[in-house]
Design goal:
321 residues, alpha/beta, five-stranded mixed β-sheet, 13 strands, 36% helix
């Protein structure tokens, strides 16, 4: 925002906050990168504002010996951050949008979604250049039910093994020979400077991305108008439309990380195309459909797509896992 009244309002807000804004963040390298990115953007837009990181450990960071789908899902990565905001320890929290549950707890809301990084999955291996190059029975690491069902559809012969830990930990496990290949998000690798580890950017046709993958979101206390004004310049309109459409589909399906759901949208002009997928890990069955409409109807398109998938048996498929 470059208009003078807006800058005056923000200056008054900064002065009333003692010039410090506190960001709740996890301690993993990727989470810290995201928080530092938001910090830099805010300080760039608001000279005089000081931003501090409040580093926290979440339950999801502590429990590393069980698949996320069995211990409560990706919401385990944000609960402590929300408690920090509610107690006044922090003003905002920064998340990977793919980790944000479809139901945000009462008292909180998404205040901003930033410009999306590469949203696709990455094939990472030291000895093979693509999924198709892997030998029969090769060991592939991932903790994502969404990725598992789509990999099985491409290569049912592969041995899929659970893989937990932050990006650096997962890469080390690959380098130590525990896996022939691992599947990670391109965005995380790019942000941490590991882009050269990406052997293959997996297409959406092979592995449809997770809802919100590649986007960073800012969670705030509900109706905190002062904070909303400060973070407003960070909002990316196109990414917001895309992620809102994907999340609307996920919400209507009542999907979490314990079930294989994927959703990915693209925008051309004012037209948004949304593709959704529901799978069954046991049978490797997949239902996949697409809708197209105006970006102003992004969320209703997400509901429309969810209803199409439900008519094809999505709810029954998800309950049976």
């Amino acid at each position: 925002k470059n208009n003078k009244p807006y800058r005056i309002i923000c200056l008054i807000l900064i002065q009333s906050m003692n010039k410090t804004l506190k960001i709740a963040t996890r301690k993993s390298p990727l989470a810290l990168w995201q928080a530092e990115h938001v910090k830099a953007r805010l300080e760039q837009h608001h000279p005089g504002l000081t931003v501090e990181l409040v580093k926290m450990t979440t339950k999801g960071d502590q429990i590393l010996n069980s698949p996320l789908s069995k211990i409560g899902g990706k919401g385990l990565f944000i609960k402590e951050l929300e408690v920090g905001m509610m107690e006044g320890v922090a003003d905002i929290a920064v998340h990977s949008m793919k980790d944000v549950p479809y139901e945000i707890p009462p008292g909180f809301e998404l205040g901003a979604i930033l410009k999306r990084e590469n949203p696709f999955d990455a094939f990472v291996s030291n000895n093979f250049d693509s999924i198709n190059d892997l030998p029969q029975g090769a060991k592939v690491g991932t903790c994502s039910m969404r990725r598992i069902v789509q990999i099985k559809a491409i290569r049912p012969d592969l041995e899929i093994l659970d893989l937990r830990g932050n990006v650096n930990t997962r890469l080390k496990k690959l380098d130590d020979g525990e896996y022939d290949a691992i599947i990670l998000a391109c965005a995380g690798l790019i942000r941490l400077g590991f882009e050269d580890r990406i052997k293959q950017q997996i297409t959406a046709e092979q592995s449809l991305p997770a809802v919100g993958q590649g986007a960073v979101g800012i969670e705030i206390r509900e109706n905190d108008q002062d904070i909303l004004k400060l973070i407003e310049p960070l909002i990316d309109e196109e990414t917001t439309h895309r992620v809102n459409a994907e999340r609307a589909m996920n919400t209507h399906l009542e999907g979490g990380c314990s079930v294989p759901i994927a959703g990915f949208s693209t925008i051309s002009g004012r037209e948004i195309t949304l593709t959704g997928l529901v799978g069954n890990v046991t049978t490797a069955q997949i239902i996949k459909r697409q809708v197209v409409g105006h970006v102003k109807n992004a969320e209703s398109l997400g509901v429309e797509l969810a209803n199409k998938l439900i008519l094809l048996g999505a709810k029954e498929m998800l309950k049976g896992q």
